[in-house]
Amino acid sequence: MSTVTSALKFEITQRPDFALLSVQLEQGQRVFAEPSAMAAMDPTIKLTAGLKGGLMKSIGRAFGGESFIINTLAAESGPGEVLFAAGAPGDTQHYQLTGNSLMLQRGAFLVHSDGVEVNGKWGGAKGFFSGQGLVLLKASGVGDIFFNSFGAMIQINVTDNFLVDTGYIVAFEDTLQYQVTTLPGLNTRGKVKTFFFGGEGLVCRFSGQGKVWIQTRYINPFLNWINFFRPAKSR
Predict the structure, then answer these.
(1) DSSP string computed for the chain
(2) What is the pTM of this model?
(3) Number of structural domains the chain divides into
(4) Is position 171 within any domain?
(5) Beta carbons within 10 angstroms of residue 117's beta carbon
């Protein structure tokens, strides 16, 4: 379904397995995207690559699992269409920022419009998202942002408390407080085993009111499943 926002006209198709984002740029409009996200574009669009927001902000994004370089796609010689596709098979979601902030899991950022800044945010110990690192991405400002998942994406409206396995979190609004903890009921020995050997038990406890987006697949179990079918080297 085609959607018109205050900044961009776009359409997301092929959902939820292999989402494809189409953005219609008017002359003078531009968007910023992860390198390799651009799948196709009209010849009226000019692509340039470089740092955005200076060296320190670029380093912050890199620690948050995104590229050090950002691609700028601008409709300089007339209106045109750009197609974007994420690296992982899954869905793409649009979110309109109105002066608030959106927290993204590392690797989830795809595209944003003018008026939006995406920076790394140090989360300390509470940002330890099950092998995903200590830095989240923080999108803030006024404009449009698109983010992607591994698998389909589900929006959860949190009104009090909600628990999500850390590997399934894609994004959440900054109106929510969060704390990474273990599942209730695990004994101390179980907590240590879960932390070092993986598996269920490490969850993010959200509280307050706001939206959380979760994905229906988690990359680590998927990689373990693939590894089982790898041919073994004969000695």
Answers:
(1) -EEE-SS-EEEEESTTTB-EEEEEEPTT-EEEE-TT-EEEE-TTEEEEEE-SS-HHHHHHHHHTTS-SSEEEEEE-SS-EEEEEE-SSSB-EEEEEEEEEEEEE-TT-EEEEETTEEEEEEE-GGGG--TTS-SEEEEEEEEEEEEEE-SB-EEEEEESSEEEEEGGGEEEEETTEEEEEEEPTT--HHHHHHHHHH-STTEEEEEEESEEEEEES--HHHHHHHHHHTSPPPP-
(2) 0.78
(3) 1
(4) yes
(5) 18
Q: Tell me, what CATH number does 151's domain have?
A: 3.60.160.10
Q: pLDDT tens across 133-188, in order?
A: 446 889 999 999 999 999 999 999 999 899 998 889 999 999 999 888 776 655 54
> Do residues 34 and 71 touch, judged by C-beta distance below 8 A?
yes
Residue 30: count other Cβ atoms within 10 Å of its Cβ.
16
Query: Rounded to an integer, what distance in angstroms lies between the CA atom of residue 83 and that of residue 12?
Result: 10
Tokens of 210: 């706001």
99: in domain: yes
| Distance, first Cα to last Cα, the chain | 55
**Domain span holding position 31:** 2-226
Asked if the structure places residue 234 within a domain, the reply is: no
